[in-house]
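Predict the holo structure. Ligand: nicotinamide-adenine-dinucleotide.
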Amino acid sequence: MKRILVTGGAGFIGSAFVRWQLKHYPDVHIVNLDKLTYAGNQENVADVDAARHTFIQGDIADREVMLQAMEGCDAVVNFAAETHVDRSIAGATEFLRTNVDGVYNLAECAKETGLSRVLFVSTDEVYGSIAEGSFTETSPLTPRNPYSAAKAGGELVGMSYFHTFDLPVIITRGSNTYGPYQYPEKVLPLFTTNAIDDEPLPLYKGGEHNVRDWLYVDDHASGIDCALRNGVPGEVYNVAGGNERENIELTRKILALTGKDESLIKWVPDRPGHDRRYSISADKLKALGWQPAMPWEQGMEETVQWYQENETWWRKIKSGEFRAYYEKQYATLKG
Ligand code: NAD
Ligand code: DAU
C-alpha cells in the first residue's frame, strides 16, 4: 500500500495510526481527512513528516470532498466518529450523522473509486455488556447507549456494501484505549489531569466496580494495521488489550502515579445505562500475527508521565469548549 486515506486522523487513535504507518512503512503516504470537531486537533500530528502527510479539513459525510480525497489511494481507514458516551446521552444527533450517515457516504464514495481495502474502526461497545466470559466476532450486537448503537448502525451499513457490492470491507472492534493525546473528557486523561491539578476525580457512583479492558494506543494502531494488511474482506476482528480493570482500581493507579491520595475521589451520579463489563477475545486477530506489546504497568507509567510532561497540550483544551461541557456534565461537583 502506497497511499492510505485516514479519516479522523487528527483524533486520539487516528493520529497514533498515522504515526504508526509513517514509522513502519517508509514508502507510505498518508492523506489525513478530519473535520476538526471539538475532539480533532492538528497538534496531534504536528510531529509527523510533512512530505509524507497531506492534511485535508473535511467531513466524511461530504461526497465531493471524500471522492477527491480518495483519488489515488489504495485504502481508506475510518476513525472519524463522535466518540464520547456521555455526550451521546446528552444528545445523539451528531452521533447518528457522523457514525451512521458519514459511514454510509464513505462506503458510497469508496464503491465508486476501486479501493483495495475499506476498514471501519469500530468498538467492543457494539456487543454491549457481558457478565462472564468474552465476546467473539460472532456474538450478537446488543449496543446499549446512543454512541454504541450509532457505531453498530454504521458497521452494519458498511458491511452491507461488502455483501451487496463486493466492497472489500474489514471491521475492527477495539477495547478501551489509553495513551498520549487522548481528549481529556475520557476517564483516564480526565482523572490524570484533574489529579495533577488537585481537582476532584468524578467517579460514577455505583459504577466503581464496572470493568473496562485497557488497550495501549499503539497496540490498537498495530492491531488495525494487521487487520488492514492481513485480514480478509467481509471479516470482523476484535482488538483487545487483555487488561481488564475495575474503574476504582484504575482510579487508584492514577492517584498512585500522580502522588495524590483518595480524598480527591468525588462520587457523582452514575451514567444512565452504564455498561457493567466489556470483554472481547482477540484470538482471531492474533491468528493473523498480532500481539499487544505494551505491558499494563509500563503503559500506565508512560501515559501518566506524558500528561505530566505535556501540560500545554491539555491545558489549552481544558480552557476551551471543554469548560462548558465539564461544568454541565459534572454540575453535582459544585455541591
Ligand atoms: P476522538 O474523539 O479522539 O477522535 C475522533 C476524530 O474524528 C476527531 O479528530 C474528529 O475531529 C474527527 N471527526 C468527527 N466527526 C467527523 C466527520 N464527520 N468527518 C471527519 N472527521 C470527523 O476518537 P478516538 O478515541 O480516537 O476514536 C477513533 C475511532 O476509534 C472511533 O471510530 C471510535 O469509535 C473508535 N474506538 C475508540 C476507542 C477508545 O477507547 N477511544 C475504542 C474502540 C474504538
Ligand atoms: O470500549 C471502547 C469505548 O471506550 C470506545 O468505543 C469509546 O469511544 C470510548 O469513549 C470508551 O468508552 P467508555 O464509556 O468505556 O469510556 P469512558 O472513558 O467514558 O469511561 C470509562 C469508564 O469510566 C466507564 O465505566 C465510566 C467511568 N467514568 C467515566 C467518566 C468520564 C467515571 O466513573 N467518571 C467519569 O467522569
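The CA atoms of residues 184 and 317 lie 8 Å apart. Residues 7-8, 10-14, 34-37, 39-40, 59-61, 79-81, 83, 98, 102, 121, 123, 151, 174, 176-177, 183 surround nicotinamide-adenine-dinucleotide (ligand 1) (CB under 6 Å).
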